[in-house]
Specification:
This protein is α/β, with parallel strands linked by helices. About 40% of the residues lie in helices and about 20% in strands. Its EC number is 3.1.26.4.
Amino acid sequence: MRYIWYIGIDEVGRGPLAGPITLAAVAAKMPESQVSIFDQSPSLEGIRDSKKLSPARRKVWDRLIRRNFAYAITSVHPKMIDARGISPAAHIAVERCLKKLATTYQLEPDTCVVLLDGGLRAPKAYEGQKTIIKGDERVPLIAAASIVAKVYRDAYMRRLHRRLPAYGFDRHKGYGTAVHQQAIRLCGLSPYHRATFCGRIAHRENPKPRIM
């Protein structure tokens, strides 16, 4: 019987003004003949896209996924996003995540079916890849990846808040809320802001945000 690695990939943090874009890959090794792209594992029954879950439910799912599946997580820093653009940064994250999985679990591209959300794509070596519109709503492994990425990035932004409390990262996670935009106007951009995303927001010329 031939076994295949089914890998769901999703990202979070594409739109925020600050913080990284974070991507997760969640993988399951299964008999090739027994798995469709819409039903990867009984242990994911009832899973939903991370955006449709409360923080408490996301944490419950995150623990379950990490216990039962292979996974990898990577983030791309705002400086890279500014230098390359958000879509290239997302593709860099996909490549890094797959390299982590390959190294940790000895995966080979020809034994992988890679299921990606939205506009994401994998390196060409992964011939068995499929980009699925609204994949985080339709494919359990992609939904699992969205949860792992979301929990990881939110925790990072809470830690960042402790260093830069003036911006309120613990509340908005870097997204462009009115409160966040006002903080930028008052304090300027931190090293964790995406300058290319914040060009229209007025701020002081030489601010010095307080780093704890």
